[in-house]
Amino acid sequence: MTGHEERSYRLDAFPAAAIRFSRALDRNRERIAEEEGLSASELRALFYIGEHVSVTPKQLAEHMHVTTAAVTFISRRLVERDLLHRVDHPGDRRSIFLELTPRAHAAMERIHSDFATMVSRATAHLDHRQVEEFTDYLGSVATAIAEHTALIAGARSAATL
Fold first, then answer.
1. Taking the C-alpha atoms of 39, 41, 43 and 47 in order, what is their torsion angle to the nearest 10 degrees?
2. pTM recorded for the entire structure
3. Do 133 and 85 have their domain in common?
4. Which of 46, 64, 97, 155 could be bridged to 87 by S-S, CB 3.0 to 4.6 A?
């Protein structure tokens, strides 16, 4: 024993359900990464690039909150696996864009199709109206959490200046 009173920090109601939902999504991402032979960071990079079509290493580093050196390592591995290719930046010869290869596009299509099927099955007990309402609620909660997180991060950043 550490001398501290034993305590359980469990949430209930909606916060507990949100944590279960988040953990279920995390486990699904871990499964996908394992099946694809990727690290969690490599999968995150592919998802971001797939969503944005073409990104610079700097943009990817900012999104992932890692250094450009880390992105160089991640992208090199993905290029070696024929999942990414580097494209010359037309406006800056010192920069490049990272884009998905046909092999990566096929993987993303498969992953997204599997995810859509999983969500469809998970919501099969809901009628169309309930799914639409859930979509709206989930979106508004996600937006509010993202805004709250950005506000706190901005306040902490300003406090350190």
1. 180
2. 0.83
3. no
4. 97
